[in-house]
Each structure stands twice: as C-alpha cells, then as structure tokens.
Design brief:
By secondary structure, this protein is of the alpha+beta class. It is built from 3 helices and 11 strands.
Length: 240
C-alpha cells in the first residue's frame, strides 16, 4: 500500500512538472505542499464551525471559505482511517457498576462516559464516576483513541486524576468488541502517587445492542495479580 501511494505521488509530480511555467519539484515537495493546503483548509473550516456555534447556527462573522470546503470535501473521511470499526462507541453513556479489590469491600458506583469525534481520525474520550448515590465524586479520566494506519491496531491513551497515565492497545474486529491491554512501560505516574501502584491493565468494551454496552477493567498492582476490578453496563443516553 505504501509503495502504491509513493508511486501515485511520483506520477502526480511528473504531471505537475510537465506543466509550462512551473518550478520543478520532487514528489516530497508536492506532498508537503498538499499537507499544508489540507492543514490550512481544516483550520478554516474549524473556525467557521466555531463561529457558527457562537451565533447559534447563524451566519459566521467571516466569509465562507469555498476553497477550503472544496479541499476538505476530497480528504478521506474519518471512516477511511478505521474510525468506522469503532463507530458503535460514539455517544454518551451512563450506567451503574460494581468494583472489587482484594483489600477493600466491594462497592457500587455511577459512571458517565462519552466517546466523540470532531471529523478527524481519532476518538475523544472522557469519563466521570461517583458513588452510587451520585453525591461523592470518585474517578475522572480522559484521553483519545488513535488508529494505526493500514492496520487493525488501535491505542487508547488516558490521563487519570490520581496521577497516572495509561496507554493500552488492541485490535478492532467485526464483533463490536475491543480488548485493550497495557504493555511494559505503558503506565506511568507522578513521583508522589499513592501506593500500591498499578502495574498492568486490561480494558474490554463490548456492544450488547444499539443502546447498551458492557465494560470490564482488569487491574494488577505491585502486590496483587491481574484481576477484575470494575464491571459496568452502560445505557446510551445521547448519540453523537
């Protein structure tokens, strides 16, 4: 696939250099020029959308950039990057779950999560949880799901409010289920994080239907082996 892309760029470069009155370029220069054009177009369209929101969908303060719209219209849609394989995640979800850990009593909690996409090839993620009575905040985490080009590999990158960052990876499939696993060095923490430190995690998201999703978090710490820590079933409360 990469060779085919490079060959296409070389063909395009030959056609460009064949035109009268142009300075000869190599395919890397042509490709860089296109990347710059795409970047400027995306920024222009994003600005138009922000201004439209500020005017409640009315006329933006700046003029419509038809050139940018034309460029964006021929850029591959996010689905072409693999987003479609996890599109079932997109939306806001809420549910009640239970947690367990060998040294504490089992507990119940309420959680709200949101997966969203802004038209670029990654998924935004955020989660907030409270005690079962929804009166005491418990855990916050946020991050992104990124897609490895031309593969089924995806990565979930998270920052936690207790001072840890987490990068877990998995592979997409046709079953509407994704299993993320951490690897050596993919978890890190601030210097004064409380013990025991988390040393490994696994996350499993599974669709149970159009408006229901199951989540399981497995966790290992310095003094406990990998085991089920959280289990929750979400109901969709809002689509993207």
């Amino acid at each position: 696939m990469i060779k085919q892309k490079n060959s296409a760029w070389e063909t395009l470069t030959e056609e460009f250099n064949y035109q009268a009155g142009v300075s000869e370029c190599d395919y890397k220069q042509i490709k860089k020029c296109w990347e710059n054009i795409k970047s400027r177009a995306k920024k222009s369209i994003a600005k138009q959308k922000r201004e439209a929101k500020l005017t409640a969908g009315g006329t933006a303060s700046s003029e419509r950039d038809e050139g940018a719209e034309a460029v964006v219209s021929i850029i591959p849609a996010p689905n072409d990057y693999g987003l479609d394989t996890l599109s079932w995640l997109i939306g806001k979800w809420k549910g009640e779950g239970c947690g367990t850990y060998p040294t504490i009593k089992p507990f119940e909690y309420v959680e709200e999560v949101e997966f969203s996409n802004d038209g670029i090839p990654f998924i935004n993620y955020k989660s907030s949880s409270w005690d079962i009575n929804h009166t005491k905040p418990m855990h916050w985490e946020s991050g992104f799901i990124r897609f490895k080009p031309e593969s089924k590999t995806v990565a979930l990158m998270l920052a936690h409010n207790f001072g840890m960052t987490e990068i877990v990876e998995g592979e997409t499939n046709d079953e509407k289920e994704i299993h993320f696993k951490s690897s050596s060095g993919s978890l890190s923490r601030m210097s004064f994080a409380s013990s025991p430190h988390v040393v490994a995690t696994e996350r499993v998201y599974k669709s149970l239907g159009p408006n229901q999703m199951e989540f399981k978090l497995f966790m290992a710490t310095e003094n406990q082996p990998l085991g089920l820590h959280l289990h929750i079933t979400y109901e969709r409360v809002l689509t993207a």
